[in-house]
Amino acid sequence: MSRQDADTRDLFSIADLASEFGISTRAIRFYESKGLLAPERVGATRIFRKRDRARLILILRGKRLGFTLRDISDYLSLYDADRSQQVSLLAGKVDERIALLERQRDDLETTISELREIKHLAEERLKKTG
């Protein structure tokens, strides 16, 4: 199913969404168990609406950006609430995530520099003994 086809549909099966987003049905059921998705049920069959699909897009984007399920849940809980509160929460979480990634980048750069120095010293020692 193409994104264009999905944008014009009102109802989706769990298999439709799994296929569209390249995730397992188990992942979708997991997000449902955490309260992030709430499909309707017809017997044992889950019926997802456009709203569920939009929420799944936000969940997957949040996970890709490194947000926790708790962060994503907090954001989604404000989905129908005051937009300014939602935007404020998002801005704060984004700032926290950027700060964490910048600290990790600094740590990586330090580690890489130290490893290069160790390698250089090891190569110098090899030249002297070889």
Automatic annotation (TrEMBL):
Transmembrane segments: none annotated. PROSITE patterns: HTH_MERR_2. Gene3D superfamilies: 1.10.1660.10. It comes from Devosia lucknowensis. Keywords: Coiled coil, DNA-binding, Transcription, Transcription regulation. InterPro entries: DNA-bd_dom_put_sf, MerR-type_HTH_dom, MerR_fam, Tscrpt_reg_MerR_DNA-bd. GO terms for molecular function: DNA binding; DNA-binding transcription factor activity. Pfam families: MerR, MerR-DNA-bind. Residues 91-125 form a coiled coil. Residues 11-78 form the HTH merR-type domain. This is Transcriptional regulator, MerR family.
